Amino acid sequence: MKTIVSVSFVLLGIVVSLAPEAHAQIDLDIETGVVFSGYNDVRIPGKGGTLFSLSEELEADPEAFYRIRVMYHFNERHHLGALYAPLSINSAGQLNRALVFEGETFPAKTPLETTFKFNSYRLFYRYDFLRNDDIEIGAGFTAKIRDARIAVSGGGRESEKTNVGFVPIIHFRVLWKFAGDLALLLEGDALAAPQGRAEDVLAAFMYRVSDDIDVKAGYRILEGGADNDEVYNFTLVNYASLGAVYHF
Questions:
Q1: What is the Rg, in whole angstroms, of the alpha carbon atoms belonging to the chain?
Q2: CA–CA distance, 222 with 157 (Å, rounded to integer)
Q3: Euclidean distance between the first and final Cα of the chain, in Å?
Q4: Dihedral, CA atoms, 126, 127, 129, 132, nearest 10 degrees?
Q5: C-alpha angle 21/210/137, rounded to 5°?
Q6: How far is the C-alpha of 66 from the C-alpha of 197, rounded, in Å?
Q7: How far is CA 50 from the centre of its chain?
């Protein structure tokens, strides 16, 4: 995955070097906080496995998180970006029934430990079709690579399911500057298809501290999943988010 991150930022650098320089600006967007698991229903394989919940039948601990995004803005309305967003949630507990998971059977009442990993690497482009002193509205597309892993261990047994895949998603952003330096931000990536769905959306207040720094605080939701012969997994993750955007 380090290779994927490196390639993503190299590609962003190439695009930036080819883009027009007029009105260009580079931003570093850093976000952190605490992540809480909502529903997280799993059945692996999708046909033949045991359906269970990593968050309702097991206890999922809140986890710290961080996300890093580099953005390049040119000609005021055009925006390019690269995002690295790791995510890992651990759960523990036991089920009152046997668990069949990815070729392994865990007997009922076995103390279980699980790891849900969903790292995301994205490149995106956005065009602002409305931009004035009060509001900015834009949309575009995101090229996302997911690095997913669900692992279960207990009673001397362990098994895991991993998946690395590419997902194209719609990107959008709305910024409403309703009170001077204070603004409301709605931004995210979302798409639904017969194979599954994915939404990663932030609603936050932003405050311009200076010409060089904006700070933000809000709520992020990550939701989605897939239902096929290999995997059934639908997940909701809640983020209490704090962040800062540095303008260069």
A1: 20
A2: 30
A3: 28
A4: 90
A5: 60
A6: 23
A7: 26
The first and second tokens of residue 6, run together, are: 């490196």
Q: What are the pLDDT digits (tens) for 102-112?
A: 999 999 999 99
HEC assignment per residue over 100-165: EECCEEECCCCCEEEEEEEEEEEEEEEEEEEECCCEEEEEEEEEEEEEEEEEEEECCEEEEEEEEE
> What string of DSSP letters covers 24-92?
-EEEEEEEEEEEEEEEEEEESSTTTS--EETTTTSEEPPEEEEEEEEEEEETTTEEEEEEEE--EEEEE
The single-letter DSSP state of residue 222 is: E
- Could you tell me the domains of the chain? 2-247 (2.40.128.90)
Q: Which two tokens stand for residue 245?
A: 């955007």
Q: pLDDT tens across 5-28, in order?
A: 454 455 455 455 545 555 679 999
19: three-class secondary structure by DSSP: coil
Cα 68 from Cα 77, distance rounded (Å): 22
* Spatial separation of the C-alpha atoms in residues 85 and 67, rounded to whole Å: 5
Cβ neighbours around 171 below 10 Å, total: 24
Residue tagged 């580099």 (tokens):
70
Cα–Cα distance, 245 to 107 (Å, whole number): 49
CA–CA separation, 230 and 78 (whole Å): 39
pTM of the full structure: 0.88
